[in-house]
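Quick check before the chapter quiz. The format below is the same one you will see on the exam, so make sure you can read both the input and the output lines.
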Amino acid sequence: MTFINFRNQAYYSAKRYWHGTHRSAAVGETWERVRSYFKSIGLTRIANITGLDWIGIPVTISYRPNSCSVVTSSGKGITLETAMVSAAMESTELYCAENINLPEINLPYSQLAENYQVIAQENLPLCENSLFNIYRSQQWCLGWDIVNQWEVAVPVQAVSMNYHKYWLQYGANLGSFDMNSNGLASGNNFLEALNSALYEVIERDAVSCQLEACLQGQGLPQGYRLPRVCLETIEYPLVLKLLTKLESAKIVPVIFDCTVDTEIPVYRAYIYDPSGHAPSSHGYGAHLDPEVAMVRALSEAAQTRLILISGARDDIYHHYYTALKIKGNGSYEAGNLESNQPTVDARTRKSQATPTFEEDITIVLEKLKQAGLNQVIVFDLTPPDWDISVVRVIVPGLEASFHRGYRPKQRAIAFGAAPKALQTS
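Here is the expected output.
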């Protein structure tokens, strides 16, 4: 019998919901579970902002005014109910990561390995221009490596989302580790949350590798272009439904296949308005089922566009909007996208999804090991007695999200130097 062993406990869970995503409970059931925690996490309201745009793909925003990270969380889905659940679950994830209750170890990295399993120094989640020093004390906490079945010390900043505590109160932490939400996920149960978290870290890694290749290719005669999917080859019903919505709204979609050596389908979707009335936007998706991955990428692109239109996101700053207003930016980006001709047949990606989460996770872990990634560190951040689960997953060696302050590691640099070495057919 297949199961996932976490801290010497066996976990297994069948899937019960398959419409655009794979879950262990129907959307309505998840909504009833998560809404019972709104008061305790400080979630005051969820806004349906779908009508601010004319595309019609459901997008919502949830608000936690006393958040220690970002006040707003966003949700998307193929139905409004799914989008409502998506925003609410993202809020619960952030709340749990802001309020982690894990014993902390204060040691310099040079002494840590004497008593604990550690992440190799070259794979530590360092920020750009990091001031990390192996002889300076840092705060660490212990996660469970589900590949090797032992505890591993991880920087607290790689787990927590409490910016008030770890940025404002503890100056010694400044300048060492990147602090972000990569690998933070929730679900109806532990395995569902773990599955989602794994997809997120794999998605961010693949996209960062591809974008690093584009950066390294700038100025070269041939350069490097993201592999673009030929939309005419897409046969997935839900994806076709989303493409029809975009076409009806006169919005142009462009989908790139960003899959790398992890062999999990990863897509980056761009959508742009040829009239220039709204900024272009993009979204990402990863899943063993390529249809689900594409649905996520397209719906996230619509979500990003609506967030920009609403102006409600508290971590999108004025300079970003200023750049969007610069005359010619939109037409230049559209021209750059369209100059990249489609070469990828969507039918070449076959679903590897199974009826259970434990089987899906086993497949994902095996693919990570085949790519040379032999640590998968998991933190269960779920508060006691909660009927949903929140986890944080860290896979040392995978690239982080391609964002301001991001520091490329070995995989992205190697991919940028020779993209085909990490790319799959």
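If your answer matched, good. The mean pLDDT is 92.
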